[in-house]
TrEMBL record:
Signal peptide: none annotated. This is Heme A synthase. One of its GO terms (molecular function) is metal ion binding. The chain crosses the membrane at residues 16-38, 77-95, 102-128, 134-156, 168-189, 218-237, 244-264, 270-291. It comes from the Bacteria. Pathway: Porphyrin-containing compound metabolism.
Length: 305
C-alpha cells in the first residue's frame, strides 16, 4: 500500500490508446444518431435480412429503396465500432500491470458491442419488436457512458482513490443518477409507444404515448432540480465535480427545451433524434460527475487534505 501511495501523480496514457478510446466514444455516440435516423425515417427494415442486407447480398441492391441505404449506413458503423473496441482491449492488455481497471472497462465495452450486434440482428428477424428496440437503445446509451468513464479513468494516475466530497453530497449525486436513469427509462417507453416505430407497416399497441410523455417529464424535472442543488452545493464548497455539474446543467436544460418543443410540435423526426443523442450525452456527463466524487491519492499528505 505504501508503494501505491508513493506513485507519482503524473500519468500519461499511451497516445495510441488515447486516440483509440476517443474514437470508440465518438463511434458509440454516432451510432445512436444513425440508429435514431433508421427508426425515425421508417428504415428499420430497409435491409430485410441480417447479417446480409438482402438475401444473397451484403450491400443494398437496386430493388431496395433509400431506406436500405440508411439502414446499411447504420450497420456499416458497427464494423469500425467493433474494431476499435477490440483495439482498446489489446492496448489496455499491454498496460494491464499498471491499469487493470482500464482492461476491465474495455472488456465490458467489447462484450456490450458484441451483444449490440446480436440484438440488432434479432430485431430485424423479429420485425422491429418494440421491447428489443428499446433495449437496443439502452445498451447503446450504456456504451456511451462506459466509454466516457474509460476516458475519465484513462487520464487519471494508477493510484488509490479517496472521496473528494462530503458524504451527503455523494449520496445526493447518486440519488440524482437514479432519477436520471428513471428519466431515460420512461423516455424509452415513451418513444416505444410513439409514432416512430421504425417502419411504416408496423404499429405500436401499448401505453398511450401522450400519457407516457407526461410521466417521462416528471423525473426529468426532478433531475433538473437535483442538478441545480448539486451545482449550488458544489459551487459553495468549490468541490471537485463542479465543472462537470455545470456541463450537466447546460446539457439538461437544452434537453428539456428540445423535449418540450418536440412534444408541442407533433414529434418532428429531427428533434426526436436530437433528443435521443442528447439523452446519451446527459447520461455520460452524469457518469463523469459521479467519477469526480473521488480523487487520486498520490501520498498520505494528499489523503489528509
Amino acid at each position: 500500500m505504501e508503494a501505491a501511495q508513493a506513485a507519482p501523480i503524473t500519468w500519461r496514457p499511451p497516445r495510441f490508446l488515447a486516440v483509440s478510446a476517443w474514437v470508440s466514444f465518438v463511434l458509440n455516440t454516432l451510432i445512436i444518431a444513425t440508429g435514431g435516423a433508421v427508426r425515425l425515417t421508417g428504415s428499420g427494415l430497409g435491409c430485410p435480412d441480417w447479417p446480409l442486407c438482402a438475401p444473397g447480398s451484403l450491400v443494398p441492391t437496386q430493388e431496395l429503396s433509400y431506406h436500405s441505404l440508411i439502414e446499411f449506413g447504420n450497420r456499416t458503423i458497427s464494423g469500425p465500432l467493433l474494431v476499435f473496441a477490440i483495439l482498446v482491449v489489446v492496448l489496455s492488455w499491454r498496460i494491464r500491470a499498471q491499469r487493470r481497471d482500464l482492461l476491465v472497462i474495455s472488456l465490458v465495452v467489447l462484450g456490450l458491442v458484441a451483444l449490440q450486434a446480436l440484438v440488432g440482428g434479432i430485431i430485424v428477424w423479429m420485425h422491429l419488436n418494440a421491447n428489443l428496440v428499446g433495449f437496443h437503445y439502452v445498451v447503446s446509451l450504456a456504451l456511451v457512458c462506459i466509454t466516457a468513464a474509460f476516458l475519465a479513468r484513462m487520464y487519471e494516475p494508477p493510484v488509490p482513490r479517496e472521496l473528494a466530497v462530503p458524504k451527503p453530497f455523494m449520496i445526493l449525486a447518486h440519488v440524482s443518477t437514479l432519477v436520471m436513469a428513471l428519466t431515460v427509462l420512461f423516455g424509452v417507453l415513451t418513444t416505444a409507444n410513439g409514432p416512430h416505430s421504425g417502419d411504416a407497416t408496423i404499429q405500436r399497441d401499448g401505453v398511450d404515448a401522450t400519457l407516457m410523455s407526461h410521466v417521462h417529464s416528471w423525473p426529468g424535472y426532478a433531475a433538473l432540480a437535483l442538478t441545480i442543488a448539486l451545482l449550488i452545493w458544489a459551487a459553495a464548497g468549490r468541490l471537485r465535480p463542479l465543472k462537470w455539474i455545470v456541463t450537466l446543467l447546460v446539457i439538461l436544460l437544452v434537453q428539456i427545451a428540445v423535449g418540450i418543443y418536440q412534444a408541442r410540435n407533433g414529434l418532428p423526426e429531427l428533434w426526436v433524434g436530437v433528443h435521443m443523442v442528447l439523452a446519451s450525452l446527459t447520461a455520460a456527463t452524469m457518469t463523469l460527475v459521479v467519477l469526480r466524487l473521488k480523487r487520486p491519492v498520490a501520498d498520505p499528505a494528499v489523503a489528509q487534505r
